[in-house]
Write a structure and sequence with these properties.
It comes from Cladophialophora carrionii. This is Fe2OG dioxygenase domain-containing protein. With 384 residues, the protein is of the alpha+beta class. Strands 3, 4, 5, 6, 7, 9, 13 and 16 form an eight-stranded antiparallel sheet that branches. The N terminus is likely disordered. It folds into two domains: 271 residues, q2cbj1_9rhob like domain (Jelly Rolls); 85 residues. It starts with 11 loop residues before the first helix and ends with a helix. The chain contains twelve helices and 16 strands.
């Protein structure tokens, strides 16, 4: 899922009200209009250093899943302070806040669908060959942005001054916790009442790159919690400002743990899919359909899927013509190809839900989880 920077409402009710109170620190950052975007320059805006640790799908119990052997990376430096400031200026602007804000039963405050119209710098960053090469190398497969609509998706949370005060003592505890190669605990990890920034889910797209746009110096929590194949919970520490994490989130149940100790937590989530048309595409729209402009979402989804199908059919035609010259035809292989593309088209039929059947902000909990324990937990919450 299948996260950016605007102030979080204090409650769901206040989020939906006509006038919203925003934390002063965030309000100060927000511009009245979209600022003139700087030009993305890799030499100036990238600060990439490879992650010290990358976990494989096999290591976390999912050896036979996914489009790559890579599961998740440790946080690694990716962008300079100047690049982060440019991104924040765009995604926290008034036009983005007014036109691109969504709320759902999965997350209370999200911004999406703002690039390239309101965020040309952000768009150029994630379309640049240099950034795509970095993301692809860490992911273990050549990737491209899933859709323009998914450049990018912002998850936003904020804390009041009172909430910040309650974690001062825990800050001391944080300094004594064991890091264990980037997998960290949290003082509230056993708190059943803790409200995550984004609840348990799997992503709609194969890979995501999560980039932090906030200062996390005094942050407690904020980790990404992953459910492994054995049912254990693994926590990868949250990235610092300008740092990123690569996650094969389509195949791993995960959540963004709540963060305390700072006024804000703003993360940018950019979704990716394999570039090759010949790698399986398990993309679904379950976590994005209720928080998207359906015309844009469906148009971009259908376009790239039909382009994949077109490339596959052209390759199949070339093979048939080559075999024909040798007076051969592979019946079994051709039928297998037809069955594969039929499944491909049937999955599109399932994802293109009729507009009138889509309920804004409401995601089906059954569709984006696969472990029975988490499904039961979500059903229990839904009844409360």
């Amino acid at each position: 899922m299948a996260s950016a920077d605007v102030l979080l409402p204090q409650s769901a009710a206040s989020f939906d009200s006509g006038k919203r109170k925003r934390p002063a620190s965030l309000l100060d950052d927000m511009a009245p209009t979209t600022p003139k975007a700087p030009t993305f320059e890799p030499a100036k805006h990238l600060n990439f250093q490879p992650p010290n640790k990358i976990w494989t799908m096999e290591e976390i119990g999912f050896a036979d899943k996914g489009v790559s052997p890579i599961a998740v990376s440790e946080p690694f430096p990716l962008f300079t302070t100047e690049a982060i400031k440019a991104m924040r200026a765009e995604v926290l602007s008034k036009p983005v806040w007014d036109n691109c804000k969504y709320s759902s039963n999965l997350a209370k405050c999200q911004l999406r669908g703002f690039a390239p119209e309101y965020a040309p710098f952000v768009y150029d960053v994630w379309r640049s060959p240099e950034v795509l090469a970095i993301v692809s190398k860490i992911a273990g497969v050549e990737l491209v942005p899933a859709l323009d609509l998914e450049i990018a998706h912002m998850n936003i949370s904020s804390n009041t001054e009172e909430q910040i005060e309650t974690v001062k003592q825990a800050l001391a505890e944080k300094s004594h916790r064991e890091a264990d190669e980037g997998v960290s605990g949290c003082p509230w990890e056993d708190d059943e009442d803790a409200q995550p920034i984004v609840d348990w889910h799997t992503d709609s797209y194969p890979f995501v790159c999560v980039t932090m746009l906030s200062d996390c110096t005094n942050m407690i929590g904020g980790e990404t919690a992953l459910r492994t194949g054995t049912g254990d919970i693994m926590k990868v520490r949250g990235p610092g400002m300008g740092h990123a994490v690569i996650l094969q989130g389509r195949y791993i149940e995960h959540q963004a743990v709540r963060a305390l100790g700072t006024t804000e937590r703003i993360s940018m989530v950019t979704s990716f899919r394999p570039k090759s048309a010949f790698i399986k595409d398990d993309t679904v729209l379950t976590t994005v359909r209720p928080i998207s402009d359906l015309t844009e979402l469906y148009s971009q989804y259908a376009e790239y899927r039909f382009e994949m199908l077109e490339e596959r059919i052209r390759a199949q035609l070339r093979e048939i013509r080559e075999r024909r010259r040798a007076h051969r035809f592979d019946t079994k292989a051709t039928k297998a190809f037809i069955r594969e593309q039929t499944t491909f088209l049937e999955s599109m039929l399932k994802e293109l839900v009729d507009d009138e059947m889509v309920k804004a902000g409401v995601m089906d909990v059954e569709e984006n989880l696969f472990s029975e324990e988490l499904l039961q937990e979500r059903r229990k919450k839904a009844k409360l």
